[in-house]
Design brief:
Shape: elongated
Strand content: under 5%
Number of strands: 0
Distance between the termini: 45 Å
Length: 117
């Protein structure tokens, strides 16, 4: 089915508007500070099929504050998190340490968490 831009715009105005945007991004406006709540969220996941790791998932793989800072900077530079969110994460990291984001995710974590191992 071939559509011209005008036909697309008339038939699917929201889709046409979204496609016309130069860059797509998702703002994340929450920070997980309670390690127990992190595990509860993971326990509710039934499979990995629709699971998309967020910045906290990556931070939980870090061993040091330096590694965590590099992750935050990388995600901020890629605009996967906002500057404001990055600042909140850095503040939590500075005040409470890298384990404040939850227990360390070791190799094979997802296999164990989702009963694959």
């Amino acid at each position: 089915m071939g559509l011209t831009k005008d036909q697309l715009r008339k038939a699917f105005p929201s889709l046409a508007k979204e496609i016309g945007k130069p860059k797509q991004k998702i703002n994340i406006n929450s920070i997980r500070t309670d390690p127990k709540s992190v595990e509860k969220i993971a326990a509710t996941q039934k499979s990995l099929s629709n699971y998309n790791p967020d910045v906290v998932d990556f931070l939980r793989r870090c061993d040091t504050k330096q590694q965590a800072e590099e992750i935050i900077t990388y995600m901020e530079n890629r605009r996967e998190i906002t500057h404001n969110h990055a600042q909140k994460l850095r503040e939590q990291l500075r005040r409470k340490g890298v384990r404040s984001f939850g227990p360390k995710k070791e190799e094979g974590y997802y296999f164990k968490a989702f009963g694959k191992e």
